[in-house]
Amino acid sequence: MLLELRIRDFAVIQDLSLELGPGLNVLTGETGAGKSIIVGALSLLLGDRASNESVRTGAERARVEAVFDLSGRAELHALLDDQGLPDEGELLLLRREVQAEGRNRAWINGSPATAGAVGAFGRALVDLHGQHEHQTLLDPVEQRRILDAFANGEAMVEEIGRLHARLALLLAERESRVHRGRELASRADFLRFQLQEIQEAELRPGEDREVEEDLLRLDHVEELAREAEAVHEALYGGEGAVSEVLAEARDRIRRLARLDADLGELERQLDSLYHQAVDAGRRAGEYAGKVEVDPSRAEALRARLDRVFRLKRKYGPELQDVLDTARRLADELEELDTSSLALEALDREAGELRGRLEERAGELSVLRAEAASRLSGEVGELLPELGMKGSRFQVSLDPLPEPGAHGGERVEFQASLNPGFPPRALARIASGGELSRVMLALKAILVRMDRVPTLIFDEVDAGIGGAVAVAVGQKLQEVAAHHQVVVITHLPQVASRAGRHLRVEKGEDQGVATTRLVTLEGDERVGEIARMLGGDPESRASQEHARELLASR
Question: Is the torsion defined by CA of 537, 538, 544, 547 positive or negative?
Fold first, then answer.
């Protein structure tokens, strides 16, 4: 709901604050007082382009801001979060500034934003009737949503959307597999050649390091044997070996330990060293005895290492990369071999989904056709009451070549406002007053389904009066039972039904024209209604008539 509209230095408005309440709010005033300027200022918050010509003479900038109540609008809180904008709880502040010179700016809850972002929030909260740009009922998407709500088909539309999305994914996957299959087929021989080249090598993980270690050992076999034998001689086999020296030292300490028990630990240490030297010496000797010179094995290892290196250079850089490449090649060839089976499975699943989609879309089409006929009839019955005799309204359902994400047809609201003329899309109806009344008829029927909380009618009373004006006022009051409605009107029959009545007045401030608002109550409101009746507002008859209208609401 729109709580307050503040306008500063816009056209002839110097500083104006418009506070609105729930239900029906009316703005009245003499022609030229500035009512349309207020609507023009509000249009900036609904996405209108800003013109520096709208800046009041002598001012640097024009500013328009509105405060909205977001109660019950969880989706707008989510949108604030998605766009990284501050959330001020149940209040939303939209603001735009138009510079006389320089760039224009916009804010949402005090945070800089684009004019488009401000307009998106504004259009979600305000439906302005009188200028085509801001009427959500002119949007084909909104028309479809309204018809589906009227038909109680929203759950079915959601199901169709899910089916269509799943089918689209399957078809995209199929197309990807076909493309992938063609690409694999074009290089299948090369893939097989590569895989065979790797498989024939019979590689093992870590084999390159093992071969390098074996080859290093074979290349130094004489040195290994010589040095191992030298170690054997030094520790065990030669004259004066370490083991002999340790044995003699151990025996000496053993004799001394009989005289001093504290030497027992040293005896045990020397005994351990002796056995370690003997064991190490024997092992060195055994190693030296086993080492053999094998030139043929060394040559075979060099050939193996060269083959591994060539494969690593081609498919590596590491041996594990070569093994991974082999697995990938095998997987690709298996994918090619099984692609026809995969496509058949996808085709079967897509066919089942398409069948379910067509079935559900057909059921929705039946619902829509019945609802379209019913809605067309109900709106058509209201139009004559609103001064539009001979007018027709219809909901057109244009079949699509195949069901889409929202069903099997395009929905369009159409009307014929003159007898003998074919219905046309609402967006192509030229008269603002007639279009506003068509919208009012729709709102009166769809009032509980409309998500936009604030409705503004600027030209709804154009060219009507008498009983039609009474009917328009009554319908506006009915709509206002479920929405906040703001009406700019010249009709006393409409103004008298408002819960809040504001008069727009034009005056001067230091020789410059300005517009101000006055909230009317009591006698002031009686006087304004009397003025709107067209007689002498000061006469007793006019005022009595005004009181009768106010009492009858």
Answer: positive
Dihedral Cα 191, 196, 197, 200, nearest 10 deg: 160
Residue 132's pLDDT is 45
In one-letter notation, the amino acid at residue 107 is W
pLDDT in tens, 311-358: 999 898 989 999 999 999 888 888 788 787 888 888 899 999 999 999
Global pTM? 0.61
CA 353 – CA 193 distance, rounded (Å): 41
Highest mean pLDDT among 5-14, 123-132, 135-144, 213-222: 5-14
Q: What is the DSSP letter of 276?
A: H
CB atoms within 10 A of CB 67: 18
pLDDT single digits (tens) 95-143: 999 998 878 899 999 999 999 999 999 988 988 876 444 566 778 888 9
Residue 488 to residues 12, 28, 321, 364, 456, Cα–Cα distance (Å): 18, 6, 77, 39, 8
Structure tokens at 365: 């089409």
| Cα(280)–Cα(276) distance, integer angstroms | 6
Kindly give the pairing relationship between strand 407-416 and strand 512-520. Answer: unpaired
Contact, 343 vs 177, CB < 8 A?
yes
Alpha helix (H) ranges present in 129-263?
140-150, 154-186, 188-200, 207-219, 221-232, 242-257
CB 438 within 8 A of CB 428: no
Position 287, amino acid: Y
Asked if residues 460 and 472 have their Cβ atoms less than 8 Å apart, the reply is yes
Using a 10 angstrom Cβ sphere, with 0-12 exposed, 13-18 middle and 19 or more buried, the burial of residue 181 is: middle
Strand order in the sheet with 424-425: 392-404, 407-416, 424-425
CB atoms inside a 10 Å sphere around CB 54: 19
The pLDDT of residue 9 is above 60: yes
- Look at 34-43, 65-74, 124-133, 516-525 and tell me which has the smallest mean pLDDT: 124-133
Q: How many beta carbons lie within 10 A of that of residue 43, not counting itself?
A: 23
Cα 478 to Cα 489: distance, rounded to the nearest angstrom: 17
Q: How far apart are CA 328 and CA 11, in angstroms?
A: 71
For residues 383 and 7, give the distance between their C-alpha atoms in angstroms, rounded to a whole number. Answer: 35
Contact 153, 365 (CB under 8 A): no
Buried-exposed string 89-114: b where 16+ CB fall within 10 A, e elsewhere: eeebbbbbbbebeeebbbbbbeeebe
Beta carbons within 8 Å of 243's beta carbon, 6+ residues apart: 235, 236, 274, 277, 278, 281
* Of 152, 126, 27, 23, residue with least CA distance to 68: 126
d(CA 355, CA 160): 11
